[in-house]
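DATA SHEET
Item: assembly model
Revision: 1
Owner: S.N.
Input lines:
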Amino acid sequence: MKKDIFQISPGFEDIMPAEYRDLIDNGPFEKNVGVSDLGSFKELLEEHPLCAGCGLALSLRLILASLPNPEDTIIVGSTGCSALAFPQVALHNIHSLFGNQNAVASGLKRALTLRFPDKVKDVVVIAGDGATADIGLDMVLQSWFRQENITTIMLDNEAYANTGGQESGMSPMGTVLNMAPKGKKFPKVSVPELARESGCAYVATVTPAQPKKLGKAVVRGILAARELGPSYIQVFAPCPTNYKFKPNETISKIKLREKEGTYETKEYITAEAQELFARLEEGKK
Amino acid sequence: MSLTEYRVLPGPESYLPPAAASMGVVLPDKGSALVEGGIVLKEEAMEKIVDKLLTAKNPVFFPGPLVLWAWKEGVAEKAKAIKEMAEAVGAKIIPMPDYRPKYPMINPAIEINPNHPNLTIWHNKIDACIFVGVHCHYANVALKMIRGGTDCYTMALCSEAGHEDAMISLRDFRIEDLYTMTEMIKKRKGEGK
């Protein structure tokens, strides 16, 4: 546990900005908190510059609140909307070249395992759908084939959202966006199936409309990556700016898509992962 | 201008000033220091730092993460010595707690960031500053930007090999040097009475 390195040097407490003092006093470190405890601790994401009603920002908040070991978690991000929020995240995070995130995370995890053999260091990739399913698909799949012990989380807003609105592989068929006026010609890529077939120990699709389920998936994904192999979590994070709905409609849009059956939440757990979760949950009792 | 004529002086130099190293300024050997791009003895540079701090209108210390956070043994003592030196000068301390590019949300009145250090210097009208406890690669970036966009006189107390982009740079800076400089400041202030 590393919280002891987050102490301010004596004498400098009064000059440190308030948010740093708040993180030390009320942050989630060593507290074993989750999404249900939001509001009772200082969050790791503050003053992000994402759009009002951004599903991605909400999802990122929930993901960060769910990390089982935030003081020893390193996030690897990639180009996209989420990259705009990462400078405001009070965790170690690395911005990789667009699409390279799973290759960077693989190297990082291996290096940390060598450098800190007696410690648990969680490496979590958090990237958008463009970085995961299009530009970085090669690196994502190869990391799964190699059975790297990393968690990959896709923030799926179904578009290239911060470049004006182009279709991504994750946009549903027929989607019309600012820079995709003719409508998308092929269906949404099923990355969860790719993950399952590529050897991920744990795969889940979740939404921020069900925060507890999302939190549980994040914890399970990270625990599976620690012990077994790669895990994949896909979070539906719709974009009001490009899909042109009101910022206060984000959650209702998610619920509508679930109801229509056009965004399915599901979980795939290997037998080994089932056994692991049962053992861990038994240990908690 | 030939490479050897280049001097590291207060700016604003230009939007993208050259790295002093690319203009022929080299790092000092052990026992030496840099003053405005030229190599001098360490003691001479220390005297010059004291001069600059005591004659500045608004000298400010910028401690970085290496001293702000008590992350290993010995840091707390060093931090205390830095604070004592700043107090001896009568200088304000503005922290650089980490290196996140917090633009445009940074509050320049209370913190400095290596990705846009000019904001803090402009906001507080700082005419002389001390970098201490900032990782070298970020110090280099920030020092160059300050030279490029402000007229602030920069001084780096580096525990490694020094910084060409600071107007004055010491190298191998240890806690004993902090005590020495604090004594020099107190002595100089006493003489002025």
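QC remark: The longest strand of chain A covers residues 122-128.
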